[in-house]
């Protein structure tokens, strides 16, 4: 845009300067021609002016095809000579100022050389061609020039007033206009070509200059769990970007080190907790068997065993999440029939939530390739979430279908309205929303986050849908065949 504006401005100014230069050159020739002494007497003009008019194209350098008009008249307004091309539309007001009258004693005869012989023009005697003129202390007359537009075109008119006669010459500017039209066409063709060359050159230069930025963009896109070891090469990089790339590589190195430490800590902690929790659970079960039935000790041991089981589930989920963060979640890839899994879960709903109205619309033989146990856990988490946060006499709807090469499972349920702030963070780990709504609901805040990580590992997507008030809906999208290698 800048280059185009500059070229357009340059072309416009150049066109105007060329036009003004041509008009100025014509003005200079008009001034020189009008300032030349001419025969003042009528008897001499009759033979002088027709031949003088014929020489005007040669004197002005316009060519014979350019229309030129001549008008000569006396000071009292009597027309001495008028060309056929002279138009009544020409306005000469103000071009012939009034000249002071001089007494005969004030006139003198200037010593002038005889002008060169002009072919076809008879030369009058010197006394008659150069008669008495005003005093020398009076300034000589100066031509006036003006441009006028008439029905016949644009004309440049020059006029001069001597002490005995007035002369006006009108030259058509159509020749200059034709030349300027050619120059304009040249500009209209050349400027886009030059602009195209500039644009192409600028694009090539900028493409090469921004190559390090594109490498940074590619490296940033690869910054995932498995891409933290990516580095941008510096060997072939321009010196202007070396420091930027070095800082970016150092940032990737710090991120990789910190992530590995966090992932290793969570994985090690979850793994180390599995053994003592398993031992504790076994001891509680053995002690519970020895306790007196119906006693307070048996009740306390039963509550402790429930909490230990809950803690064991948390540790198992944390271990799976740490493996997902590290990109090491092992998937046992088999053909999974989601329709059968959903049908079994719908049957179990009669025992788990008999108070809910369940509506199932499941397309038969919905098959995907993935880990059977992990996908079952995703669906169980969604069913469990729909039961926990449902209304007392609510409903639940399961819709499973295939759309193109994607299997869609939508689980909707009646529920209290979820605030916008909770919707944005509903997949965060250990986030359970408003405590006033969730304090009576069992859970750890890891179910949805784990379900999302498992879905991502299967190249799928788990989303919270936009629904009317008092309704919640999750949609699980899984590809029919493709699965990410882990």
From TrEMBL:
Q: Where is this region: Disordered?
A: 108-147
Segment forming the signal sequence: none
EC number assigned by the record: 2.7.13.3
Subcellular localization(s) per the UniProt record: Membrane
Single GO cellular component term: plasma membrane
- SUPFAM superfamilies reported in the protein's UniProt record: ATPase domain of HSP90 chaperone/DNA topoisomerase II/histidine kinase (SSF55874), HAMP domain-like (SSF158472), Homodimeric domain of signal transducing histidine kinase (SSF47384)
Sorted UniProt keywords = Kinase, Membrane, Phosphoprotein, Transferase, Transmembrane, Transmembrane helix, Two-component regulatory system
Q: Where is the HAMP domain?
A: 207-260
Membrane-spanning regions, if any? 186-210
> What enzyme class is recorded for this protein?
transferase
Q: Which PANTHER family match?
A: SENSOR HISTIDINE KINASE TRCS, SENSOR HISTIDINE KINASE YKOH
The name under which this protein is listed is histidine kinase
Source species? Tolypothrix tenuis PCC 7101
Organism lineage: Bacteria, Bacillati, Cyanobacteriota, Cyanophyceae, Nostocales
